[in-house]
Amino acid sequence: MIPLEQIRSARERIAGRVVRTPLVRLALDSPATIYLKLENLQPIGSFKLRGALNAIAQLPSTELEAGVITASAGNMGQGVAWAARELGIPCAVVVPEGAAETKLAAIERLGGRIVKVPYERWWQAIVESSFAELDGVFVHPVYDDQVMAGNGTIGLEILEDLPQADAVLIPFGGGGLSVGIASALKALRPEAQVYAIEPETGAPLTASLAAGEPRKIDYEPSFVDGSGSPAVLPRMWELAHGLLDGAAAVPIAETAAAVRLLAERARVVAEGAGALSLAAALAGHGGTGSVVCVVSGGNIDSSKLATILAGGTP
Fold it and tell me: Residue 167, Cβ neighbours under 10 Å: how many?
């Protein structure tokens, strides 16, 4: 669990540099009263800016001379590139082959250097928290406590806007978003239920919680590129299984339907991972009270969005 004071300090540190995103009610005939926490409205289209800024702002200047590195499917790469641009230092982002072109183009616009590697090598960099082929400080997209503290500021904002929140549903990729938000929520409103949501094609946390121990699963890449993996990182398992109230896996077709519903009903553009929480809420995973769905990002390739809006699943 990330200490509440660390999260509050992060909020002060990143204030004025990130958007305090709105919490809006979704007008929908549903057993639950659904609210959307719109992190897709951040300058980079994703919550990742919060953690990246908070972590990099605290690194000694002597360590930053060679620049920063991260491993990312796209959104954390944008966050780190944004922070690096502010500091005038180099940034390299290790991405898996097949990463969304929309996200890669955004990283390059922000001045980040892209290094494409096979998925297995990318996952190794995340597990080992390093990429020896490049010089610079490795900013872990998940493990870093300061990254998670930055993510936790979302939890503070949710409770300010909806003190009576009954449940919060959070997309689960590496776990840093879930752990950060849950740390804030459990410190201030322990009765609120916090659930991690994964795509069915890659739901290691759901499988691990059901088994009571870490489990590897057969992972299939999908258009939900910001979530899903073959395994839960060891430290994230230690944090998540004692902090979260549960997890759920959502079918890919239902996730696409949630992307479509957000666009048509709320005029919100969400990427696959950003729509997971709404798909889960519509399936009843958050219960029937006041349910907050974290829309984690909106960086979706236009061709995939067009397919979804036309009624298909990429």
Answer: 22
Among residues 75, 76, 72, 152, the alpha carbon closest in space to that of 116 is found at 72
Q: Identify the residue whose tokens are 């959502």.
A: 250
Higher pLDDT, 231 or 36: 36
Q: Give the integer Cα–Cα distance in Å for 237 and 92.
A: 28
Catalytic residues: 48, 296
Q: Quick one: which of 264, 252, 246, 263 has its CA closest to 298?
A: 263
Neighbours of 254 (CB within 10 A): 18
Phi and psi (nearest 5°) for 103?
Answer: -70, -40
Report all structural domains of the chain as residue ranges with CATH numbers, in order of start. 4-47+145-309 (3.40.50.1100), 49-138 (3.40.50.1100)
What pTM value is reported for the model? 0.92
Task: Please check whether residue 79 is in contact with residue 46, taking contact to mean a CB–CB distance below 8 angstroms.
Answer: yes
Tens of pLDDT, residue by residue over 42-51, are 999 999 999 9
Is residue 40 over pLDDT 90? Answer: yes
